[in-house]
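explain this:
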Amino acid sequence: MGLLDYKNITEEVIAEKCASIQNSVSLSKQAILKRLNESIPFLKKLLQRAFALIYANALERHSSLLLNYFSDIKLLDTTTISLPDQTVDDYAGMSGRK
């Protein structure tokens, strides 16, 4: 968390920050990368649980109130995919390269 104000966080920056916090402890770039890679599954699971809790909480509190105003909900997908010019004959689409 102490690195949030840095624009470019590198292994060297992390090592310097650790040294300043932990009384000149020395960490190599490889040691930092190892610890970062080991933390990825934990952080991923933490993020998934946080979003699940937020989503469940939002639904419990607001869904019944929102549904009182609407008889149905319709979703519209406005995704467009640009294809290379050489595919225009096979996938003409609506117009141009879309």
